[in-house]
Amino acid sequence: MSKPISKHNPLGPWRYAAVLVAALVVGAPFAILHSAEAKTDSPLSVEPAVEYDIKAPNLTDLIRTVKPAVVSIGVEKRVMQTRMQQMPAPFGAPDDFFYRFFGMPRADGGQGGAAPRVMGQGSGFIIAPDGYIVTNNHVIEDADKISVIFEDGSTHPATLVGTDKKTDLALLKIDADQPLPFVQFGDSDKAEVGNWVVAIGNPFGFGGSATAGIISARGRDLQSGSYVDFLQIDAPINSGNSGGPIFDTEGRVIGINTAIYSPNGGNVGLGFAIPSADAVNIIEELKSSGHVTHGWLGVQIQNLDEELAASLNLPDTDGALVADVVDASPAALGGIQTGDVILKFDGMPVTDAKSLSRLVALADLDHKANVEVMRSGKAKRLKVQITPAEDDVAFASTDAAGDELGLEFAPLDADSRRALGLDSSIEGVVIVSVSPGSNAAEKGLRRGDVIERVNQQAVHTGNDVKTAIREAQNDQKDSVAILVTRGDSRRYISLAVA
Predict the structure, then answer these.
(1) How far is 498 from 125, CA to CA, in rounded Å?
(2) Which superfamily does CATH assign the domain made up of 393-496 to?
(3) Catalytic one among 188, 242, 357, 416?
(4) 0.85 exceeded by the pTM?
(5) Catalytic-residue membership of 239
């Protein structure tokens, strides 16, 4: 009589593991083990229920075909050193383990107090024979110089066409003397959990590295403020893989690597990619206009749980509950009220708060959206004119009075204050451009920085900056001290005016 394998028998479970390992090694069909008790005299005899062929596909031809279109991205930038910039940048909350994995192999210290020059690396892929290349925004953000390195080692200077921070995408362009090898996007909506995928990129500077795995999950929310429903993959990706492609077995790009989950910054089998379904339209918009406009509704929303749904007489937890409506926002003007549950947006079902945010962000702004809500147990249909999100508002009224510093300014008005996340206590002028090679560029100043003071004088316009510079020059000073605010960081920088 056979004995069942129990948790008290230390050798029993390992016998089952041996069967699984053997099946994987020889590539044989894998019989599902559905009972812990043997059916014959042998404790390892089991009755197979379903058979699956889990032999890995041969990816040699696929990799050989697509690899020439995958490139390495090199960047050079000067950064304002802060305590936070010395640590890996978390993708999400400060205490989680999500990381954007842009490789930063070294920083060369500047001279005379100048901001250090940082050399970074990432990945990208060519999508058109005339030299358009996709990568991540966080790979090239604030770069002074961008280079594209091909598999044969040749290097080409790249021009930044446009970026979209909300989806972490960027489009580059290089001049090509002849048609370049390129790859095409596939349909990530058809990709399923368990499908084989191939990642090719530049991990740790090892360009042209290929790894394989499967799609582990779909629709991941990294709590990063992004509108993207990420693909989760287990193909090994590491620092330097950012911006690289994920291929399906047909050789089409179905994802773009952007983040990993790791307690130590290295690969632990949890990678995340932007689905091609989200990327295609963004890339086309960047190609045509250089920027992306996202929609804004003007509501604070939350998910429904079973108790909330029951209290609102809803059959399930689908929908987004409106907790607040911004005055004079598209939602307010369209008749949306606090307490409404938004069930559909432009004909698409709203399953939760994240899905509504995504639908609004990617909405067509040329027409009024049809919005279906449940209010006090009654269904209502509203029409709402979605407007551009506040962080897409361009800085206006450029003031070139900072020419002496290699800067151009704009007033710090309500729109730019909201776009930069600054409260009313911050006063000054916004930098809208920095001349390459200027002392300001050398010191790490960039678009979006706010100058609050010049030589201890508060400034509110470009003319205020110009006046302060002239006073310094009249006093035979070679430089001015300016107080710069960037996000929640503030520091003084000395700029030459002689």
Answers:
(1) 45
(2) PDZ domain (2.30.42.10)
(3) 242
(4) no
(5) no
